[in-house]
Design brief:
Blueprint (H helix, E strand, L loop, with lengths): L1 H22 L5 H13 L6 H26 L5 H4 L3 H9 L6 H22 L10 H18 L11
Helix pairs in contact: 1-2, 1-7, 2-5, 3-6, 6-7
Keywords: Membrane, Transmembrane, Transmembrane helix
Protein name: Prepilin type IV endopeptidase peptidase domain-containing protein
Length: about 160
Amino acid sequence: MTYVLVSILFISFGVMLYQDIKYRHIHIGLPILVFVVSIYMNKDIIVLFDGLKSLAFIGINFISIAAYFSIKKSKFQNPFKQYIGIGDLVFLIAVIPLFSFRNYMLFFISGMILSLVLYAIFQNKDEQKTIPLAGYLSLYIIGLMIPNLFLSTNIFYDFII
């Protein structure tokens, strides 16, 4: 059963990677599927307080983005209109059940750095000026899931730093 669920996650992340790079949006059903499968897979180890802290972490980040651009432009800026897609936010919420809070913060920060590096590498080949954040983060999670299948530790929930 675990391999079926992991396969569903692999396929979902792969489709999100493709959609986000090609169309710069993802289908809303994919993050919902990831969220449901992730909760089911980790139902024995999920800590509600970790999930709430991760949600608060995302909220603080998005409030900070809105505040930064509002101060910069001297009027309120909705970050979802110009700076970040709603699909990216839905994706970041959907993957919360995959991680402990500590590992989620590590994933978030290192994933943002990886996304910027990948964007810098592929920027000249692409005519669009937006970053396919959910797609790059999907690729990152796939990269994390592969070694996790062969390790005796759960790199998503066990302390890795």
